[in-house]
Amino acid sequence: MRRREIYVEGAARWRNPEDDLPGDSKAARAVRYAAIRQPLNPWTFIADLKKRMTAGLDQLSGALAGGSAGG
Question: Which pTM does this prediction carry?
């Protein structure tokens, strides 16, 4: 049995997760993603996140090596 495979009618914790989505979630997906400035393609999101994290870690590594990290 997988998690969230059985739902309890009227329960708050064990309810069907599909019921939490707005009725027009698939139709309005592009609008909602545009509102939060996120790409529809998950691989684009992951690539951008990876690029930003790598840049941040490179910056931290340089600051630690140069002694300017503040501690």
Answer: 0.59
> Does residue 2 lie in a domain region?
no
Q: How many domains does the chain have?
A: 1
Range of the structural domain that residue 61 is part of: 17-66
Distance of CA 69 to the CA centre of its chain: 29
- 13-61 pLDDT, tens digit per residue, is 777 777 777 778 788 889 999 999 999 999 999 999 999 999 999 999 9
What is the DSSP annotation of the chain? --TT-S--TT-SSSS-GGGGS-TTTTTTHHHHHHHTT--SSHHHHHHHHHHHHHHHHHHHHHHHHHT-S--
